[in-house]
Write a structure and sequence with these properties.
single chain; about 230 residues; alpha+beta; Ubiquitin-like (UB roll); 2 domains; 5-stranded mixed β-sheet; two-stranded antiparallel sheet
């Protein structure tokens, strides 16, 4: 089986071709084989090996996957995640500042959430920080200041938390480079290995934003426009 793997060493990119005779193995197992038996300089992330930590995310044939769960086919092309700084080969810089978008409880009201409340926002806690959503996001590709799918999904989780007293401050913080910049393309939802739905979360944040008179400024003058469709009666 032939695999094409993107390499990045000392600022220089290239694509290497590897022939491996391994059957029914994951990409992560094949990466380990290549490093141990073919090229010891080959660099990649390895963690839990069971789809829990998210650190082994890569792109295979232009789609984000977890290397520990995905099994290759002949002529697959593997590359690092997009829109992130590549350190070496398949290893990228992945970091996020939760403070820049208030993705935490701002004003705790000491209310104990019931089971129904917890079910509303517990799913957002399943994120494994693989950064696949940022790699697939066309807005983040063009605007690195865009908060992005993970951040906005986390904001939604704390905005609807029954223990949060200050819902509006969460919404205030995500107006610029936030919910209105998202195109709702759904790429983030499609590539999430945990089955999360950031697109839906962002849509819900927009709905909450309407309560505080926030709206997409790109359409702020829509109602003042007049249209002549050429109909005469």
């Amino acid at each position: 089986m032939k695999l094409l793997i993107s390499r990045f060493i000392d600022g220089i990119s290239r694509v290497d071709e590897f022939e491996v005779e391994l059957e029914n193995k994951t990409f992560l197992e094949i990466f380990s084989y290549i490093k141990a038996n073919i090229d010891s300089s080959f660099t990649f992330n390895i963690g839990c090996k069971s789809g829990v930590c998210g650190c082994c995310a890569v792109r295979v044939n232009n789609k984000e996957v977890l290397a520990c769960e995905y099994k290759p086919s002949d002529n697959d092309f593997v590359e690092p995640l997009k829109n992130l700084e590549v350190i070496k080969d398949l290893v990228c810089e992945t970091k996020f500042d939760v403070l820049k978008c208030n993705s935490y409880l701002i004003e705790y009201n000491h209310t104990k959430p019931n089971e129904s409340d917890e079910q509303k926002y517990d799913i957002q806690s399943d994120c494994i920080l693989c950064f696949s959503c940022y790699s697939s996001c066309p807005v983040f590709e063009l605007n690195s200041f865009f908060l992005g799918p993970f951040a906005l999904s986390r904001v939604y989780r704390y905005t609807i938390d029954s223990r949060e007293k200050d819902e509006k401050e969460h919404i205030d913080k995500i107006q610029q480079n936030g919910i209105w910049d998202c195109t709702l393309c759904g790429n983030c939802t499609m590539v999430c290995p945990q089955g999360l739905d950031p697109k839906s979360d962002i849509n819900m944040l927009r709905t909450i934003g309407y309560k505080y008179n926030y709206f997409d400024t790109k359409f702020s003058s829509f109602n003042s426009l007049s249209f002549d469709f050429g109909f005469n009666y």
